[in-house]
Amino acid sequence: xxxxxxxxxxxxxxxxxxxxxxxxxxxxxxxxxxxxxxxxxxxxxxxxxxxxxxxxxxxxxxxxxxxxxxxxxxxxxxxxxxxxxxxxxxxxxxxxxxxxxxxxxxxxxxxxxxxxxxxxxxxxxxxxxxxxxxxxxxxxxxxxxxxxxxxxxxxxxxxxxxxxxxxxxxxxxxxxxxxxxxxxxxxxxxxxxxxxxxxxxxxxxxxxxxxxxxxxxxxxxxxxxxxxxxxxxxxxxxxxxxxxxxxxxxxxxxxxxxxxxxxxxxxxxxxxxxxxxxxxxxxxxxxxxxxxxxxxxxxxxx
Length: 302
What we know:
This protein has two domains: 5-184, Jelly Rolls (Sandwich), CATH 2.60.120; 187-301, Homeodomain-like (Arc Repressor Mutant, subunit A, Orthogonal Bundle), CATH 1.10.10. It has eleven helices and nine strands. It has helices at residues 10-16, 112-115, 134-152, 159-184, 186-204, 217-224, 228-239, 243-261, 266-272, 278-289, 293-301, and strands at 5-7, 27-31, 45-48, 51-56, 62-65, 68-71, 76-80, 85-87, 98-102. A five-stranded mixed sheet has the order 1-3-8-5-6, covered by helices on one side. Strands 2-9-4-7 form a four-stranded antiparallel sheet, with helices on one face. Helix 3 (134-152) runs antiparallel to helix 4 and helix 8 (243-261) crosses helix 10. The longest helix has 26 residues, at 159-184.
């Protein structure tokens, strides 16, 4: 990847794209149906110091985020957090729908300043974009239109509060629709869960110790080719447990087998399972089973 063009503020980005300067310095909404994008930087990577939300209602182009390309097909939404990269495509037909940009500084003094981190989809890969039903598209389009109207008003003492409230409503609806997507795409997600369990079993059931330490949520996400946050949010919705909790479940089951069927000491079992310190293994085992490894083995022998 070439070194990305970095934009610290929305005004600089708009100027680079030959678009109208933002009426509000911290937020702007681009309606691609009403503007013409300057494509001189096509093929270049952009890094933004602000958030971007893309909404495409009826779209048949592709957008490249990070290492992958996503075909929106019938439309949807994608979310970009500050510090991520996006590549500018050369096809004018790729620019349809809306793009909402807002700077983190706009949230200062609002509960959203901390709450924005609860919207995990800003950390999703673009291949995990939000697919929308026709009814959901209507809701999102109405919200974007309301933001457009407010941005078109003269800035006054209420402008920021109104815009932040509208943004929060947009994100809450997006959160709801992602939860629906996890549930309605169960077959695909259950396949991911199955592949995750197979991978964990292979890691813990090997005869060799885990010399590189315990598998991490990022290890699993990389193996499954999904983002870590998407995997954890999906698992939490469908199973009630995070990725880390699934790792611990697989680990405890393997520890029980070793305690029952081998003469390894608890310290040897801890090292075999990737723990650097036996005390950490003992603590985790007791948290998950309510007994220590020694007591568990003693109870089984008795």
